Amino acid sequence: MSFAISLLETDFDFTKEEVFLIDREDASWPQGQSGQNDLWRKRVKNDVLSLHLAEKTKDEIKTTLTKRYEGIKKRSHQLNSNDVYQIFINAFATSIDPHTSYLSPRSYDNFEIRMSLSLEGIGAMLRLDDDYTLVSRVIPGGPADLSGLLKSKDRIIGIAQADDEVFVDVVGWRLDEVVDLIRGKKGTVVRLQLLRGEQGDAAVPEEISLVRNKIKLEEQAAQKASLELEHENGSSKVGIITIPTFYMDFAAYQKGEKDYRSTTRDVEQLIAELKEDDIETLILDLRSNGGGSLIEATNLAGLFIDHGPIVQVQDSTGNLEIHQDLKKGAAYEGPLVILVDRFSASASEIVASALQDYGRAVVVGEATYGKGSVQQLIDLNQFSRSKEDKLGQLKATIAQYFRVDGGSTQHRGVLPDIDYAEGIEVSDRGERSLKNALPWSQITPASYQGQIIARSVIQQLDKQHQSRVADNQRYQTMLKLLKLNETLTDRKTVSLNEKMRKKRFDELENKRKEFETALGMKDSQSEENFDEEEKVNLEDDILLLEAAEIAHDLNIYWNRKSQSVQPLKQTAAN
Hints:
The chain is of the alpha+beta class and about 575 residues long. The chain has helices spanning about 1-5, 30-55, 60-75, 80-95, 105-115, 145, 175-180, 250-255, 265-275, 295-300, 345-355, 455-470, 475-490, 500-520, 540-560, 560-565, and strands spanning about 20, 100-105, 120, 125-130, 130-140, 155-160, 170, 190-195, 205-210, 215, 225-230, 235-240, 280-285, 310-315, 320-325, 335-340, 360-365, 375-380, 395-400, 420, 450-455, 495, 565-570. The strands form six sheets. Strands 4, 5, 6, 7, 8 and 9 form a six-stranded antiparallel β-sheet that branches. It has a six-stranded mixed β-sheet with strand order 11-12-13-16-17-20, with helices on both faces. Strands 2, 14, 15, 18 and 19 form a five-stranded antiparallel β-sheet that branches. A hairpin with a 4-residue loop joins strand 14 and strand 15 (about 320-325). Helix 13 packs antiparallel against helix 14 (about 500-520). The longest helix is centred in the N-terminal third of the chain and has 22 residues, at about 30-55.
């Protein structure tokens, strides 16, 4: 970084024909000191050119990049032995399997918070802003929100516990270390020293006290919505349940608490509420859902079938365990559409594949991520003689998921019945793109009783979808924007010639603006003007709207069950 800062004194020649290699994964190591220097020269030149094309002055460029490089240097010096160990051991672990990894004590604490959707603290989202810890958002219903004492954009400069006389100055600290001081047991007091964001540079330190409490992270919980569709062949009300992750408060469950939090319990309640609203069809939105609890995936899929196997799990010795929905009856028996994308993984794929195999749902969207392996947490503290040690956890791959039809979700993912992304390359996405990933495989199908939506019906739904989107300018524009973003993501090099770079940038930017204007998308807002509470309008979600249209079409066929639904006893692979 010191070398990079020294290069900022250079007058770079932007008329030269040079390129900078962005993705060096397959590149050879630079040869000697001169090769290393040239590599860094190109990197700095690329940073300078980017700001130059953004019409920054020479002094502004130098100030911005000096600050950026000094920040990298500072964060490097803040690494401790635990960080270094985690980096080293994960480099080793992922050479065995991409999902085998080491979780430091702090990483494991954060993992538990994500799984339980709760933590004990003050209820504020924090981030670093230069040397300050900035409050980026106050979580509704938490102590900070209910007290009204902490606001978005306030800067935290000091922290003290209830009985501390002196505040700990946290300016320049790592974010995770600041968070450690703020978090604590429910009912305890933490004192904060603040610079109010609304007062800007004229702010003077102010002190507040907050009583920690249990915070519910509602944004990651399942949510419901509904859409009314009007057509010549009738109207329908479509219910939508969005599931961002498969969560379960294991600690509360193990303690026997009756109101423990889980995805299945939440979704069952949402289904009941949507039924009261007289929905005719339902969409499960699993886009960007990276998975979570296997128990929850099994239980959630069970809400939509009478009973039967949901997923098969085979370990490395060949031992097979079939996870079943043993509870008879379904919470929802009507037409069902599952919306997935390339980021739907693991538990999401279990639910989508099971309901697809049962013929219980039409899966629409993109081919999913393709993570069909099972991990188990191993508490490393059990191997220590000292109770004082905090050694963290090893997350190790121990088994593989298989669909009830015998196929694996590993590597291939779940292929949608109606594919939104036809013509877009998928081989370099998800599990398919990871080194050392397990290959696709197959075992004997489970015995299960399903009701099959006739293949001819799915073909007809796809035909209606293709006809509809062919005339839908917003949908076609969205596909063009996706392909443009794919082009930018896949690029390996950039030109360091100003004229060529500007020409390419202008071409792509003009295309992007044209697409975004056609989609009715707003210009990117500055951070200062961003409304964190603004809700996404369902009418702007083109993919969800099309899923609703498919659900509407399915509803018409569903009402002709004798033609569209056939019972099937499945005992062999399709």
